[in-house]
Amino acid sequence: MPAATPTLAPDSGNAMTRRQVRARQVFWLTAGVVVVLDQLSKWLVSQHLALYESVPVLGQVLRLTYVRNTGAAFSLLAAPEFSAWRLYLLVGVAAVTILVLAVIVHRQQAAGVFHFLPLGLICGGAAGNLINRVRFGMVVDFIEFSAGRFHFPVFNLADSAVFLGVCAILLANFRPQRPAPPPPA
Question: Residues with Cβ < 8 Å from 113, sequence gap 6 or more?
Fold first, then answer.
């Protein structure tokens, strides 16, 4: 099988390999899947559970609990004194995040699929919550974890995608780097 040869985008002057094209496709596909699953899960919860209703999934450890969150992740900024500017701030941060990630993906030349997958998770999560903030001024949260006295704030799939994307990036940056192979003679 012949090695992938660079292809030229029309009139762009930028050579991209199939691997680079595939990596960008992974970014957009990942972001799209996260948005669809996030929106579908929020809709299902809001249609089948009453507000504040809680249904055990794994006993008291994992519950589906329908809440509406006007604040940021983990209900930060949800207090009434932040209401005048909170929505604008959260919509602005999400929109800028999506724009910055799209620019990074467009400009990145040497990265592969596993570089773009976590970025797609973050972009999709930001977009999923942005859609709800613009449409309703809040997001639906419904995943609740607790263990004994420990109770984690209720969150949603978009929050999970952002968290997993950030963790993947951190893990990739903290793992030992392999030495570069010597140049061919």
Answer: 19, 22, 23, 26
